[in-house]
Amino acid sequence: MSQLPEVARKLLETFSEERFFAFFGKMGVGKTTLIKEICAALGVEDTVCSPTFAIVNEYDAQGEPVYHFDFYRLKSVAEAYDIGYEEYFYSGCYCFTEWTEKIEELLPEHYVRVEIMENDNIRTLKAYIINE
Questions:
Q1: Is the pLDDT of residue 52 over 90?
Q2: What is the CATH number of the domain that holds 124?
Q3: How far apart are CA 67 and CA 69, in angstroms?
Q4: How far is Cα 115 from Cα 25, in angstroms, rounded to an integer?
Q5: How far apart are CA 127 and CA 101, in angstroms?
Q6: pLDDT tens, 61-88?
Q7: Domain encompassing residue 23
Q8: Are the beta carbons of 41 and 9 closer than 8 angstroms?
């Protein structure tokens, strides 16, 4: 886990022009934990936690909003419309989504896809831009 701050900084450096990060991975693989580290690297001092029940949490990163989504509990894409996802997704602010596969059809054309995999207690991360 000591590598997480470095991984978070590296993601932000590698994709410095990007603001939308869609996280994919099985339950318990560390999506929320990595998002916490990314938020810390952005200067968020709020408590960062999974917005499982709220669907979206807003944090303050030195005066700029950061949006953190957890779509795990969504029963239909219509629920994403109900929270006004477009206002968040197209705000130009940082957006981090978990359980993104539930709303994949709503994703912007251009985003960073972050895949976290675990095999024999070793986690690997793959991140790349969709629609460069």
A1: no
A2: 3.40.50.300
A3: 7
A4: 6
A5: 16
A6: 999 999 999 999 999 999 999 999 999 9
A7: 4-130
A8: yes
Contact residues for 25 (Cβ-Cβ < 8 A; gap 6+): 31, 115, 116, 117, 118
Phi, psi at residue 79, to the nearest 5°?
Answer: -65, -30
Q: Give just the sign of the alpha carbon dihedral 125, 15, 58, 108.
A: negative
Rg (CA), the chain: 14
Burial class (CB in 10 A: 0-12, 13-18, 19+), 39: buried
Order of strands, sheet of 94-98, starting from the edge strand that comes earlier in the sequence: 56-61, 64-70, 94-98, 20-24, 111-119, 122-130
Query: Number of folded domains in the chain?
Result: 1
Q: Specify the range with the lowest mean pLDDT, choosing from 19-23, 25-29, 110-114.
A: 25-29
Residues above pLDDT 90, as percent of the chain: 84
Torsion angle, alpha carbons of 103, 106, 109, 115, to 10: -10
Tokens of 113: 């896809």
Burial profile 75-113: b = 16 or more Cβ within 10 angstroms, e = fewer: eeeeebeeeebeebbeeeebbbbbbbebbeeebeeebbb
